[in-house]
């Protein structure tokens, strides 16, 4: 069943984006506040462009402190134990890269 709300289907609420990415709404808000994903602040919440979020999350991860466009951006040979953990941002990036979609109701 198609819902006709009169809004652009590319524009998602925090809850809708969280569902698409398989994350909690709180994690999506944290990512937006940290500037990790593009978001438009609407009052107390955010709105997100699905295509803009997918583009950002499809970008290769770069090392902190190294500009993203630096051609010498390479993985260090030894990584501290903390940097080997993969968090919610990593999972969201994988889902965006693979085009993971939620099943239609």
Automatic annotation (TrEMBL):
Q: Which GO terms describe its molecular function?
A: DNA binding
The UniProt keywords, alphabetically, are: DNA-binding
Give me the ranges of the annotated region Disordered: 57-105
Q: Which SUPFAM superfamilies match?
A: Putative DNA-binding domain
Among its keywords, does the record have Plastid? no
Q: Which InterPro entries does the record cross-reference, listed alphabetically?
A: DNA-bd_dom_put_sf, HTH_17, SinI_DNA-bd
**Compositional bias ranges of the Polar residues kind:** 73-82
Q: Which part of the chain is the Helix-turn-helix domain?
A: 11-59
This chain's protein is named DNA-binding protein
What is the species of this protein? Answer: Actinomadura rubrisoli
Q: What is the lineage of its organism?
A: Bacteria, Bacillati, Actinomycetota, Actinomycetes, Streptosporangiales
């Amino acid at each position: 069943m198609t819902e006709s709300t009169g809004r652009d289907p590319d524009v998602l609420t925090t809850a809708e984006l969280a569902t698409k990415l398989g994350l909690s709404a709180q994690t999506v808000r944290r990512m937006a506040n940290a500037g990790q994903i593009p978001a438009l602040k609407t009052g107390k919440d955010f709105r997100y462009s699905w295509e803009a979020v997918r583009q950002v999350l499809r970008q290769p991860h770069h090392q902190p402190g190294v500009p993203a466009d630096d051609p010498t951006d390479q993985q260090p040979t030894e990584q501290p134990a903390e940097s080997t953990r993969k968090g919610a941002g990593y999972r969201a990036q994988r889902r965006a890269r693979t085009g993971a979609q939620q099943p239609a109701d």
